[in-house]
Amino acid sequence: MENNKIAVIGAGSMGGAILSGLxxxxxxxxxxxxxTATTQSAKAxxxxxxxxxxxxxxxxxxxxxxxxxxxxxxxxxxPAKVLETLEEIKASVKDGALVISVAAGVTTESMExxxxxxxSVIRAMPNTPSIVGHGxxxxxxxxxxxxxxxxxxxxxxxxxxxxxxxxxxxxxxxSTISGSGPAYVFYFAEKLIVAAKExxxxxxxxxxMVRATFLGSATLLxxxxxxxxxxxxxxxxxxxxxxxxxxxxxxxxxxxIIQMATRAALARAIELGKNK
Length: 276
Description:
- The chain is an alpha/beta fold.
- The chain folds into two domains: about 160 residues, Rossmann fold (3-Layer(aba) Sandwich), CATH 3.40.50; about 90 residues, ProC C-terminal domain-like fold, CATH 1.10.3730.10.
- The chain has twelve helices and eight strands.
- The chain has an eight-stranded mixed beta sheet, with helices on both faces.
- The model has no long low-confidence stretch (mean pLDDT about 95).
């Protein structure tokens, strides 16, 4: 990211995570600008990262002010606001700039129409573990973007985790796995805490057990060359307690439920994209 001026438009949790990753990777603070909703949050960004930030409650031109002269613009506003924001900042975007959106359901084609021919567009789908530097981001380039710009986007998101380069027609499918996947993990953790409490453990005990179990299991999965199936087998003694539990999962077709859930998420992502 060296020698590139970067603007983060809508520096909320995801934008803030990427800001943190950029600074940690050695990006100079004076090469970054950001816009956010409130003066308070803009000050917090400036105090934390040493960047120049603009607040919409102080100036309606905050997004355009942040975008001025940027080589790379990360659009991190809510999906419903992406195209409106691109129209808003279009006059401030320099020729040849790279515009990257992290919004679900907003196509590169619609972004290209909104921003015009002066900038190239890339679509990204990061997930929330990016906040702690362990994200997975899928990126796809629009028709206007070149391979060098794709590499630049890859380097940007590698500051907060791992990156997969895919065709845009796979971005929605990717969102159902790595994008929504953390919610599935948290959902299972939530239900496991409930089960632990029903077995007589206190909230504190259940919470400690589940958090530590998920952390340890995820760390082992990441560190091991074994497949998830092989790791599961190491825990599952024949005719033991764990096998009894996994047999129950199988009896209730958990595999089929997961596939149904991801297909439902994909159908919704496609539906949202049709509205953009």
